[in-house]
Structure formats: C-alpha cells, structure tokens
Amino acid sequence: NQGIMRELVGRLPVIVQLNDISKNKPVLKDIIINCDESVLLANIESLKKQGIEVENFDKVIDAIVDDASSKGTGARGLISTASKVFDSAIYEASNEPGKYEKLIFGENILENGMDFELVPKKTKTRTRKKVEENQATM
Predict the structure, then answer these.
(1) pTM > 0.85
(2) Residues in Cβ contact with 89 at an 8 Å cutoff, skipping those fewer than 6 apart
(3) How far is residue 102's CA from residue 117's CA, in Å, rounded to a whole number?
(4) DSSP per position, the chain
(5) CB-based contacts of 88: which residues, under 8 Å, 6+ apart?
(6) Predicted local confidence at residue 71, as pLDDT
(7) Pairing relation of β-strands 100-105 and 53-54?
(8) What is the per-residue pLDDT for 80?
(9) Residue 17: what are its φ and ψ, rounded to 5°?
(10) Is the dihedral of CA 96, 97, 101, 104 positive or negative?
(11) 83-105: buried (b, 16+ CB within 10 Å) or exposed (e) per residue?
C-alpha cells in the first residue's frame, strides 16, 4: 500500500518557492570557493599539479559571480560559467605539460574564451666555452 502513495505523490504537480540567491553575490562567491565539488577549484588544482599559477584568480571569481548574478542563474550558473572560462586554458596547458608557469586571464574572458595568456617557463641557458679556449688555458 505504500507504493501507491509514493506513486500518487510523485505525479502531483508541486511548486515550491525557494530563496533566490541570484542577486546575492557574497553567497554565490562563497559557493564557488567553498563547494567540495567546485569545478573552479578542480581546474585550479589541475593547473597547480602542472606547476601553473593563476595570477588574477580573484578577478576571475568576481567575473563568474557577476555573470551568474546578472543572468539570474544562481549557483547553477556558476558551474557552466566556470567551465567555460577554464576549458580552453586547461586544454592548451594540458597539450604541453611542464611548459607553462603562469595563467593570466584577460578582462573579456567571459565573452571570449580565448582571452588568456599562458606564460612559458623561463629556461636557463648555458653558454659553453669553445673547446679551443679550454685547451689554450691548459
């Protein structure tokens, strides 16, 4: 007899009013930073494992939160925007692991997913003395 009740309740149209957090930027920022399954934090961790530092992380978070807030998508909008922001950079950095040391996002990263710069690691160059000079000093 419990099966009928659950089946019946599952078919009833239910509308529930939830608190709208779309306009509450501090709450959205807290969600994107402190969520255990944050796409943003997973991407940052992936870059750190490759030795890449994200230079303007706070600005990127603010841009993502502003975007979700302006669209009224709330917390769900954070995930799609964070993925959109990081997809191209993660892909490019992963194609050449160990090559880059820094990721710098441009101001228009939300409109243009390619508005970022991956700064290559500085390589030390050694100059070799000519064999002739070494033999002359011996």
Answers:
(1) no
(2) 47, 103, 105, 116, 118
(3) 8
(4) -HHHHHHHHHHS---------TT-HHHHHHHHHH-TT-HHHHHHHHHHHTT-EETTHHHHHHHHHHHHHHHT-HHHHHHHHHHHHHHHHHHHHHHSTTSEEEEEE-TTTTT-TT-EEEEEPPPP--PPPPHHHHHHH-
(5) 113, 114, 116
(6) 81
(7) parallel
(8) 80
(9) -85, 125
(10) positive
(11) eebbeebbeebeeeeebbeebeb
Task: Sort 67 into a burial class: Cβ within 10 Å, 0-12 / 13-18 / 19+.
Answer: buried
Pull the structure tokens for residue 105: 């996002």
Identify the segments of the chain with pLDDT beneath 70. 1-10, 12-24, 36-38, 124-138
